[in-house]
Amino acid sequence: MTFTRFDRYVERHARSFTERLQALCRMPSVAARGTGVRAMAETVEGMMQRAGAGTRSFKLGGGYPIIYGEFGAGHHCFIVYGHYDVQPVGQLGEWTTGPFAAEISDGLLRARGASNSKGDLLARILAIEAYQKTFGKLPVCVRFIVEGEDGLGSPSLQTFAREHAELLRADGCIWDDGYKDTQERLVISLGFKGIAFLELRAHGARTDLHSKWGGIVPNPAWRLVQALATVVSPKGVITIDNFNSHIAPIEPQDAQALKTVTLDEAQLRREFGIDGWVRGMTGRALAKELIFAPTCTICSIHTGHTGAGATTVLPGTAIAHLDFRLVPDLTPARVVELLRAHLDKRGFTDIDINLIAATSVAKSSQDSFVALAAIESAPEAYAQQPVIYPLDPASGPVGAVCGAQQPATPVVSFGISYAGSNPHGPDENIRLDDFLQGIKYFGRVIHHLGQSSAASYAQKKSTLVQLEK
Amino acid sequence: MTFTRFDRYVERHARSFTERLQALCRMPSVAARGTGVRAMAETVEGMMQRAGAGTRSFKLGGGYPIIYGEFGAGHHCFIVYGHYDVQPVGQLGEWTTGPFAAEISDGLLRARGASNSKGDLLARILAIEAYQKTFGKLPVCVRFIVEGEDGLGSPSLQTFAREHAELLRADGCIWDDGYKDTQERLVISLGFKGIAFLELRAHGARTDLHSKWGGIVPNPAWRLVQALATVVSPKGVITIDNFNSHIAPIEPQDAQALKTVTLDEAQLRREFGIDGWVRGMTGRALAKELIFAPTCTICSIHTGHTGAGATTVLPGTAIAHLDFRLVPDLTPARVVELLRAHLDKRGFTDIDINLIAATSVAKSSQDSFVALAAIESAPEAYAQQPVIYPLDPASGPVGAVCGAQQPATPVVSFGISYAGSNPHGPDENIRLDDFLQGIKYFGRVIHHLGQSSAASYAQKKSTLVQLEK
Fold first, then answer.
1. What pTM does this model have?
2. Beta strand A141-147 with B66-71: parallel, antiparallel or unpaired?
3. ipTM of the predicted structure?
4. Do B297 and A305 touch (CB under 8 A)?
């Protein structure tokens, strides 16, 4: 069975598919502002229904609804994650056209949300539509989970994952973060780092005091600084006792995949305005650190006078927010436990640690259904090998979705963007060719999932039959 | 010559003096709000003119005027500092009566500014009036320098000190901070610590970044924490290289005076809500640290997301504000120089140090005219020995006023408040008896200055005559 008819269908409908994307992108749905988000949710639900899905809309507390849409049926089931909200538009003057004009020029569609990630959501629904039109019914069950709070930290999705874990029982999950790199190679990531977002708090006097007392009243800012200085070395190495012993060794397949990852170091240095990287790393070592190493980042410190200007006070409280990005097998609870023991051992028992937010690592082996389908379908759709990130250095609600069951659901992530998509900035855009290519690719991924899961089911059944003999 | 007639004059005019204080306290003059401050300046100038002073009003830039008033004449000249602005009133509901009602009950006058420090200003002017009425002319020249920006960090006074240094040429200076302690002893301080208020700044990426880059992009918050951790030890000891070698030994007279200083530790601990003091100090050691030790206080740290809530960013900049309180012979410039060398030696050459504000130590020996006058006049006026603080742990614009000339002008400070005056809080108040006692005391101080400076002049003259022979 070839994809000739499928591809022809996509090409024949290229114009109408593009117009449907423009229509979606013309609906503002900035979660942070609240404008048009609920209308967008209804549109997404209607769109999935027209493509043949059974849908449900979950309203959790005061948040924006989770749109759930189920396509097809089968022994195996796969989750497709998406979100229908978009980032704030930023400075209007920096856009070539309005952020919701969604005009097309030179093969680009510029709009807030085109890349992140209405283009991905629509491409995937259209791929299912095209698949059904050309092959008949889907070979597997596909469950879309589409949220409207990506820009808000996904609170409703996390509630949904806790309250409706049964809907998240699946053989794999496909996320929507991804792009072609500067060498035009499709980037497929096999998961996301976890996160443990902690608050450390040191206590001093009841209130901020006149700093003349600085010599005799304990200063929580000094206390916090002294405690923090034991956590990461001046060279940027995490020095928490026993921290490294909880990090799983890198799997050989992943070490192999890492060799294809290259960072455009010069470009990134220019973009960030930095002279060099931590510990002077470059090349393979730098990529390995980015992908496989846990991080411990001071995100903010709050102590003393926080307004404009400068005031001579002795602070009453000092707070640091630390963000640990986690790799296998570090868990948020383990990080808290190790840090607590580390600080206690050094006499910092007075410093409180609170876990504010946490997401587990979500990682797929290269042998999972979704990893195989994504990796093996890429060469035909993109005419070259993809780049495989064994782990995306970012995190997200993926841990909540894929960790709702044990063992965790394998996850892969890819998308229709490219290196110039600028998903959080002005002139966010996608290339229409990438959009259509993404539809063709997703059709192949679904097909691959159908084949491999059918083979697996047949294999399992024959094993059962043999056992019964 | 005795003070019988002087004291009787004060007692006879007790009611009218009190009414004049009430009138002053009924004029709101909160510098931070701007209401009534200029009217107050005019009132102060008129009040000094009626007492016989030649006055000038200095307007510097957009600030509130400095009122300069000169009384008497003589070979020696002394500065009396005051301020006519008051602190913000805070929560109105916490006041027994309105902050500007200035009503009297149980011998207390409650009003914002009664203690800090309209009561002191008026007591000093009234003492001069009473002195002139009973003794005739003043035995020395007294220059009042009265500002309206105590609550704003005294910017105009600092400009004035630079631009009119000739008016600050004097044989001594009397400041207006002081009170009776919980044992009803008059506190006289022989100066104030200096201050060096520094900004330390570490640099990272051009802007805050997504914290997924935390493992490879330098984090200025970690850099700042690591640098700060070398400046003060976990025990709260300043560990800057060679810092202690620039601290002058304590003079024997000052060490002697320290023995009379006692802190009400239990009360202060309750007020501050702390279990104990730095390094577990108590008693004599605690008082010595408060008075004679330099401090290094982290006043604030600014890095990463500074608004409400918590955000996972990798900060682009990290700033700490450090406040050093200085003792002899530490200077602000020396502190910057030592800290720079200390950080450079440890590889922190990338951290900027900026001196934001500085005031020199202002300190008097116990043999100066003003110290002798204050100390020796106290037993008669207060019927007991005063407590002598060799140095007030606070700082202020005193360094600008007393350091305008070299050698620096000796300074002493005392006032009419008591331990319950609550000068920055609700129900700020003074006891009327303290007010009248303060007038009697100040008359004696002026008289003492006249006698000792006349003796000094006679001595100097006879030395000259002998040299000419």
1. 0.88
2. unpaired
3. 0.88
4. no
